[in-house]
Every structure is written in structure tokens, then in C-alpha cells.
């Protein structure tokens, strides 16, 4: 699987995340497998004064996050920020599992996705990433 940066990937991700209409100013990285886009990562809501960058992702295939893909995404992210934030529904177990594997800290928020649906924020600092089992210099 090959990672490549392309802003058109953001539209692909938007089409797969419920309730998202736009990421605004963003950078997006696609993951291509056998000449087909199988996953996308969007970096948005950058707060340069705080060094915070929000990340959203979607995939049409399991097992898309290889060490190569993770390192390419995190290299970009941590060249621009000191902490990443991701938000997802609590029942989105694959997304939460990925963030946990990256070394993130999870904060559960009741009703974040409505009265009957909890959510979570995951935060990942540059220090946590460098301590992750997926990190490679």
C-alpha cells in the first residue's frame, strides 16, 4: 500500500463519514492498493499557535494502516503540530483500536453523537508517537 498526498482525497473521506460536509482548509493523504484508493487521512482544523491538528480518516478496506502509512502520516502531522486530535463515535471500534495502537489517549464523551450515542476524543502527542510500537525513524 502506497501513501500519497492529494487534496481530492478529502472529498473521498467526506463521502464516508456521516455528518461531515467539509474539512475547510486541509491536507489529505490517500492510501492506494492495487491502483485503488482504499483509505484516506485528512489533516484539518490546524491551530498553529497551539500546535494542534485534527485528523479524520476513512477506509474501504481493513488492515490499511501499515507501518509505512502510519509513519508517512505522522511525519507530516508532527512536522506541523505537537498534538493530534481525532473524534469518533464510541461504537467505531476499528478507529479507536487504530488510535490506541498509535499510542493515543482516549477521552470518552457521553452523547457526543446525540442523545443515544457516545463518542470519544483521542489525543496523540509527538512524544506518545515516538514511544509507539509503530514508530520508525
Tally the beta strands. Answer: 7
Fraction of residues in H or I helices: 25-40%
Instruction: Enumerate the spans where pLDDT stays under 50 for 5 or more consecutive residues.
Output: none
Mean pLDDT, all residues: 92
Task: Give the end-to-end Cα distance, rounded to a whole number of Å.
Answer: 19 Å
Order of helices and strands: EHEEEHEHEEH
Spatial strand sequence of the major β-sheet: 1-2-3-4-5-7-6
Shape: globular
Tell me the name of the CATH homologous superfamily.
Gcn5-related N-acetyltransferase (GNAT)
Name of the CATH architecture:
3-Layer(aba) Sandwich
Q: Which fold name fills CATH's third level, the topology? A: Aminopeptidase
CATH class: Alpha Beta
- In DSSP terms (H or I, runs of 4 or more residues), the helix count works out at 4
- Measured by DSSP, the beta-strand proportion falls in 35-45%
Explained architecture:
The protein has 137 residues and is of the alpha+beta class. It has one domain (2-130): 3-Layer(aba) Sandwich (Aminopeptidase). 26% of the residues lie in helices and 37% in strands. It has a 7-stranded mixed sheet. Strand 3 and strand 4 (52-59) form a beta hairpin. The mean pLDDT is 92.
Element layout with pairings:
Layout: E1 2-5, H1 9-14, E2 26-33, E3 36-47, E4 52-59, H2 67-80, E5 83-89, H3 93-102, E6 105-109, E7 119-125, H4 126-130
Parallel strand pairs: 4-5
Antiparallel strand pairs: 1-2, 2-3, 3-4, 5-7, 6-7
